[in-house]
Specification:
heterotrimer, A mainly alpha (328), B mainly alpha (289), C alpha/beta (417), A: mainly alpha, two-stranded antiparallel sheet, 16 helices, globular
């Protein structure tokens, strides 16, 4: 589903192809605990793909729909993870509050630092986002007493979530955990879809297509990019927060630019111009990495080769290759 | 205490000189081709391993020149086969491409030369400390700095006086006009890439003499080189030179007072520079946007 | 790297470097018993096959492979074939944890081995405990694993940092003096080993300072300048793997061996062999040593490792080898692969000489699940006659002496109800 179809979604008839596709997609996601074990996967892996998929979609909000290239999104992802982990470890036993804390930590810091970035474009934007990301990496890496340093942040457990008399046991039950992840994923993705479909989303796409023209049309380009960057950080932190819950663990590598690069490749591999592409890209990447790293100690070559092949032969990504170029 | 600080400043300048060598190559490629070469540190490693292979046959002094040359040839091949295909496209592609190359090169080095570190023999004549007091200034480190000076001077002379160098500088300012004047831009970019990789290879040989060889040896140098470029100002090679030395010294001074922050301090400097002077210390107006 | 059953010869022996590492990993036992509908017994082994500890990790895997081959040749475990699934933790805690979950959830392994890196071993012990999977820490030394965070399902083969430090501190103080400078890796292992040394050094009335450096540090000049300014009698180098090689290399480049001694706890065979001969000095501990002329089973093991890998046998080979044999011994005594049954069976079980490979009674202590093995205290030196003869053992400190009592470790072993 490209952004054009997102925009059109409101105006389409009830049983359009898009809607059927969307219904099928959600059915696949909801039924994961039932079909994934049948094809040799495991629920933990599906959770990972979903969480990284959210991160890649969050990045693509900026990359694919605003045309701004961040290569440091692991920072916001990792901050989300640490925010959640620290909250569970030191403050609260509520998984919901901890998730929220993670989202806020990454989102707010991203918003603040984003202010410094809005005038940069292209590779320079990318370089500076990498460097900002590394600040947080080194803080987590060396501040042993708070973050556990290189050992990672241990000693916290996600806790069951109670809704009145109903208890969702995300602690002991992998399937319940998966549905919690999917629930947060759905909220974030829904918000992203709404935002992109709104007039605000249209200005972002206008900036992507032709920044100068957008400026002439009276769009405050810097402000819109800042907003887009901030929103992207919030969504990415949400993914990080879920990651901490999924693993009961947060480690400095979740802040490292290597992960940033992987998030970008997921988005590009799936298809930058497509709303759902990054989710597909993340799923393919996660499964491939899981598989290859068990097969050979030379897994780095395979991952590297994947990067090269995607760039050289499938720059529009998996979903991009399936659909026609959106009209300009 | 004063002595400790002075020692560390000197040491920082030596380390910084090394960042400069690495950052200048990165900076050249970035300026002309608008490509951030993530694989730069891995070309450095490759240069070191080439020297390791060559030294038994041609000796250290010849390897110091031949190994970087071989690295540059590998660089040209990579540029011709892959990197040139992403020129002019969305910068996301060049980033991903070189990122992937970095993975592959690291793994290839590991596969060919092993995970265990390998030693690189340095001529005994330069292996000793110069004096007992200034024990950390070994002949080899002086030699390293001298080579960096020669390389930097050579690079600046090349850019200023040679025909290709002038074209590269012109291309950095306005590639379209240079192309319109009939210069073969593709060739220019290849040559420029090769020069950048040559510097990386040279840095690799020098680093190998000091820390030995291992597949990850370049990793810790990549980010400081990035920062050197941003702090110095994109588009300005003099800025890169200055930026490299500045962060080398800053990190060294930090190790005296608060060693845990030595890695982070260079990023803080970068953030401060960007706040006070968004184009970097010596950057041209508009180069970074 | 994953090997599951194809019979392959030892043909890759001749390759060098990574080729040999990878090749060795692919060497598999020629099974005599083929699985006749029986599930094989599966061990999932997670080790940092890439990164600064790669060489050490590869040795552990080689040792484990040798044991698996031997066991399968002589009837397997409980009559079932033994399988080793190897995963690379890439020296990254997050990756290690992820691999542990995968081996447990997807591959349904019966046992986990992990990891050279203390932090990864520690983090994985949380996962295996949560999943109730029998876990042997082959080579991660940080104290809490069999100390205050000990767990019923976790056993450890390599020493604790306290054991190594306790065995050598007196020697270091007596030989060199009481003013020490530490170069310590900034993670679980380093914190633990430095604390263990400091506790004993201060008991002697000694003084110290030091630098905590991240894993993978390439340039040690700043720390060495600081060391020289402090003027210690001995520089305690607790880095490991490539980091120890790099730091010692720079130490001798600066000629600091003229100003201060160097020593510490671990200085493993592979590392001593990789540093320049000026740095092949100092008093250290080994956790196992190949040259024990009075023990024929050691000579047999050394020859078997040489035949399988072309390398001299190192402590890490023995860690992997012993771990696999411990699984067999525990399973056969318990007649079960259930975690709690195996754990109870292994407690205080005296290991036979062909597994212990050293004098004395060698066993996993029931109170903390730590292997009580000797600490080999001695001196490093440039190779004499044999290229692997780079260390001379002067004293053997028995496990319980070095480790202290269970109460000292802070471990309270609790089994699930």
């Amino acid at each position: 589903m490209s952004e054009a179809t997102v925009l059109r979604a409101a105006a389409t008839p009830f049983l359009s192809r898009q809607r059927l596709g969307l219904a099928a997609l959600w059915a696949v996601l909801i039924l994961v605990p039932f079909w994934v074990p049948l094809v040799g996967g495991y629920t933990q892996l599906a959770g990972r793909a979903l969480v990284l998929g959210l991160a890649a979609m969050a990045l693509n909000f900026l990359l694919g729909f605003t045309g701004v290239m961040s290569f440091g999104h692991a920072a916001w992802f990792g901050l989300g993870a640490y925010g959640t982990g620290l909250m569970l470890r030191y403050v609260t036993s509520s998984s919901l509050l901890a998730t929220l804390a993670g989202v806020l930590l990454g989102g707010v810091l991203g918003t603040v630092l984003g202010r410094l970035l809005v005038r940069r474009r292209g590779v320079y934007f990318a370089m500076i986002t990498i460097a900002f990301g590394q600040i947080f990496f080194y803080i987590a890496y060396r501040w042993n007493s708070l973050t556990g340093g290189d050992d990672g942040l241990r000693g916290f457990q996600r806790q069951p979530i109670g809704f009145g008399r109903f208890l969702l046991d995300i602690q002991g039950n992998d399937v319940a955990l998966y549905y919690y992840l999917l629930f947060v994923f759905a909220i974030c993705v829904g918000l992203m879809g709404l935002l992109l479909g709104s007039p605000f989303g249209r200005t972002l796409i206008a900036i992507r297509e032709n920044e100068r023209r957008a400026r002439f049309l009276g769009i405050d380009v810097e402000r819109q990019i800042w907003l887009s960057f901030s929103l992207s950080c919030f969504f990415c932190s949400a993914a990080g927060a879920l990651y901490a819950l999924l693993n009961n663990f947060a480690d400095p590598m979740t802040l490292h630019y290597t992960l940033s690069g992987e998030i970008v490749i997921m988005a590009v591999m799936g298809g930058m111009r497509s709303f759902w592409g990054p989710l597909l890209g993340a799923a393919v990447f996660v499964v491939l990495q899981d598989y290859v790293s068990s097969m050979t100690v030379n897994w780095m070559s395979f991952i590297g080769l994947l990067f090269v092949l995607v760039v050289l032969f499938a720059p529009r990504g998996l979903l991009g290759a399936l659909q026609r170029e959106t009209p300009r | 205490m004063t002595q400790l600080v002075l020692f560390n400043i000197t040491n920082g300048l030596i380390v910084g000189a090394f960042y400069v060598l690495m950052a200048l190559g990165l900076s050249l490629i970035l300026n002309l081709s608008n490509v951030i070469n993530f694989a730069h540190a891995n070309f450095l490693t490759l240069g070191g391993y080439f020297a390791y292979v060559l030294i038994p046959f041609i000796g250290f002094w010849a390897a110091l020149f031949v190994a970087p040359l071989l690295t540059a040839i590998v660089g040209i091949i990579v540029e011709r086969l892959m990197i040139r295909r992403v020129y002019g496209r969305d910068p996301v592609y060049s980033l991903l491409l070189t990122f992937g190359l970095a993975f592959i090169l690291q793994d290839v080095c590991r596969y060919v030369w092993g995970t265990q570190g390998l030693p690189l023999a340095v001529p005994a004549s330069i292996a000793q400390p110069l004096s007992a007091d200034l024990f950390f200034i070994t002949g080899y480190r002086v030699f390293m700095v001298a080579i960096v000076l020669v390389a930097v001077t050579g690079l600046f002379a090349f850019l200023r006086y040679s025909r290709i160098g002038v074209r590269i500088r012109a291309g950095i300012l306005d590639l379209e006009t240079v192309a319109a004047l009939g210069v073969n831009v593709q060739l220019l970019r290849s040559l420029n890439f090769a020069v950048g990789i040559f510097l990386a290879g040279l840095a690799g040989v020098l680093a190998a003499g000091q820390i030995g060889l291992n597949p990850n040896m370049g990793d810790t140098l990549l980010m400081p080189s990035f920062i050197a470029i941003i702090v110095g100002g994109v588009g300005s090679l003099a800025g890169t030179l200055f930026g490299g030395l500045l962060i080398g010294v800053a990190a060294a001074i930090t190790t005296v007072f608060y060693p845990t922050a030595a890695d982070a301090v260079i990023y803080v400097i970068m953030a401060l520079v960007l706040l006070a002077r968004p184009r970097g210390l010596l950057g041209e107006e508009g180069m970074m946007s | 790297m994953r090997q599951d059953g194809s019979a392959r010869g030892l043909s890759r022996r001749g390759l060098v470097g990574a080729g040999a590492a990878v090749g060795a990993l692919q060497v598999t036992a020629p099974y005599l018993l083929s699985a006749r509908g029986e599930q094989p017994v599966r061990i999932g082994m997670i080790d940092p096959l890439t990164g600064v500890y790669a060489t050490l990790a590869v040795s552990e895997v080689e040792g484990a492979k040798l044991a698996v081959a031997e066991i399968n040749k002589s009837g397997g475990v409980l009559g079932r074939e033994l399988q080793l699934l190897v995963e690379d933790s890439a020296n990254d805690v997050g990756t290690g944890v992820q691999k542990a979950r995968k081996l447990i959830d997807r591959d349904r392994v019966d046992v986990i081995f992990a990891d050279v890196n203390s932090a990864i071993a520690y983090a994985i012990s949380q996962v295996t405990n949560e999943k109730k999977v029998f876990h042997i820490v082959c080579g991660g030394h940080t104290d809490p694993i069999t100390g205050k965070d000990c767990k019923w399902n976790v056993f450890r083969v390599c020493n604790t940092t306290t054991m190594d430090a306790a065995a050598i501190t007196d020697t270091l103080v007596k030989t060199y003096g009481k003013k020490w400078f530490f170069i310590t890796p900034d993670y679980a292992y380093g914190h633990s080993v430095q604390a263990a040394f400091v506790k004993r050094l201060t008991a002697h009335g000694g003084t110290y300072t030091g630098d905590l450096l991240p894993l993978g540090t390439a340039d040690y000049s700043a720390s060495l300048i600081k060391a020289k300014a402090f003027g210690p009698q001995v520089l305690i180098n607790t880095m490991g793997g490539l980091d120890q090689i790099n730091s010692l290399k720079q130490f001798v480049q600066f000629g600091l061996q003229k100003d201060m001694a160097v020593g510490g706890s671990l200085y493993e065979l592979q590392i001593i062999q990789a540093v320049p001969k000026e740095a092949q000095i100092g008093w250290w501990t080994m956790e196992w040593w190949w040259n024990q002329p009075n023990l024929p089973e050691v000579a047999r093991f050394v020859a078997a490792i040489r035949a399988a890998t072309g390398k001299p046998a190192a402590a890490r080979h023995w860690f992997g080898y012993l771990s696999v044999h411990a699984v067999k011994l525990a399973a056969e005594r318990a007649k079960s692969l259930a975690g709690p049954a195996m754990a109870h069976a292994l407690e205080d079980l005296r290991l036979p000489p062909e597994v212990a490979l050293q004098p004395g009674e060698i066993y996993f202590r029931a109170g903390d699940h730590q292997l009580m093995s000797n600490v080999f205290v001695g001196e490093a030196h440039p190779p004499e006659a044999d290229p692997a003869n780079v260390f001379t053992v002067h004293e053997m400190v028995s496990g319980p002496t070095a480790a202290g009592t269970v109460a000292d470790t802070g471990c309270h072993m609790a089994y699930p109800a």
